[in-house]
UniProtKB/TrEMBL annotation:
GO molecular function, one term: DNA binding
PANTHER family: HTH-TYPE TRANSCRIPTIONAL REGULATOR YBHD, LYSR FAMILY TRANSCRIPTIONAL REGULATOR
Keyword Transcription regulation: yes
Signal peptide stretch: none
InterPro entries per UniProt: HTH-type_LysR_regulators, LysR_HTH_N, LysR_subst-bd, WH-like_DNA-bd_sf, WH_DNA-bd_sf
Family: Belongs to the LysR transcriptional regulatory family.
Species assigned in the record: Thermanaerosceptrum fracticalcis
Keywords attached to this entry: DNA-binding, Transcription, Transcription regulation
HTH lysR-type domain boundaries: 1-58
One matching Pfam family: LysR_substrate
SUPFAM superfamilies: Periplasmic binding protein-like II, Winged helix' DNA-binding domain
Protein name listed in UniProt: LysR family transcriptional regulator
GO (cellular component) term, any one: cytosol
């Protein structure tokens, strides 16, 4: 049994497709097919059900996948640890950043960190908080800066800052003269929200449910500037963090009568090996 066979098996298991797995791994399709066949012959079990158009894991394959992922994760952790010992001046951190947090919080963190540690590379993955949390739980990211108001039991978290979600209105909206707005008064408005993989959107949807109405969502976007621009043009209303909303001169931001607060922090998987570079980043954030 070779390490290469396990890597091929893991990728096919994730994608349920040998052709796509070959493309992702930059090898030929026959290479993967032969490697998996040899693996099945050696184990004496069938790992994949090939009777349908999309191949799927058999019961034996599902059990074997759990073992393989643990083996490959351990090997990856060992290699990272050895790299740290070999050269503490080099390293990379794969970090997930949601769009709204990336627009106001991360640039300053990135600039200050690079000033102190110019040899360390930050590889940025831009996804919503929910998607980043899932990637962290699967061990596919080193760190993530996410909303930690409802932390996962699989993750360690380090608080960074808190914020309030404000209602964003066009300047000519009838509610702009209110000191605060009850959420139920937004029934019937056109909502412009962040995409579905964000906790920010989930919070707004929960408020709608709490106030017994289904929002009329006319657009979902991961681009903060797009959302602000559409609100300014009177296309709809939205909800943004206070530090972002108050920077928009052509958008009126108001608090909700029942304020919505969130906490933002750094997160990482509890049982995942942290490279020296990741440990340095965590210590840097602790001292912000």
């Amino acid at each position: 049994m070779e390490l290469r066979q396990l890597e091929y098996f893991q990728m096919v298991s994730r994608l349920n497709n040998i052709t796509r797995a070959a493309e992702r791994l930059h090898v030929t399709q026959p290479s993967i097919t032969i490697a998996i066949q040899k693996l099945e012959d050696e184990l004496g079990v069938t790992l994949f059900d090939r009777s349908q158009k999309q191949i799927t894991l058999t019961a034996e394959g599902q059990v074997f996948l759990q073992r393989v992922e643990n083996i490959l994760r351990s090997i990856q952790d060992a290699m990272l640890e050895m790299n740290d010992y070999r050269d503490l001046q080099k390293g990379s951190i794969k970090i997930g950043i949601p769009p709204m947090i990336g627009s106001f919080l991360f640039p300053e963190i990135f600039a200050n960190f690079k000033t102190l540690y110019p040899h360390l590379e930050l590889c940025i993955i831009e996804e919503g908080s929910i998607a980043i949390r899932k990637l962290l739980e699967k061990g596919e990211l080193d760190l993530g800066i996410v909303i930690i108001s409802h932390p996962s039991p699989l993750l360690e978290t380090l608080p960074i800052t808190k914020g309030e979600i404000l209602l964003c209105l066009p300047p000519n909206h009838p509610l702009v003269h209110c000191s605060s707005v009850p959420f139920f008064q937004l029934r019937g408005e056109s909502f412009i929200l962040l995409k579905e993989d964000t906790y920010h959107r989930q919070i707004i949807m929960e408020e709608c449910s709490k106030n017994k109405f289904t929002p009329n969502i006319i657009l979902s976007s991961s681009q903060i500037e797009t959302i602000r621009g559409l609100v300014a043009k009177g296309v709809g209303i939205s909800f943004l963090l206070d530090v972002i909303a108050r920077k928009s001169a052509d958008v009126i931001s108001l608090p909700l009568s029942e304020p919505l607060f969130i906490e933002i922090g750094l997160a990482w998987k509890k049982d995942k090996y942290l490279s020296k570079a990741s440990q340095v980043f965590i210590e840097f954030v602790k001292n912000l």
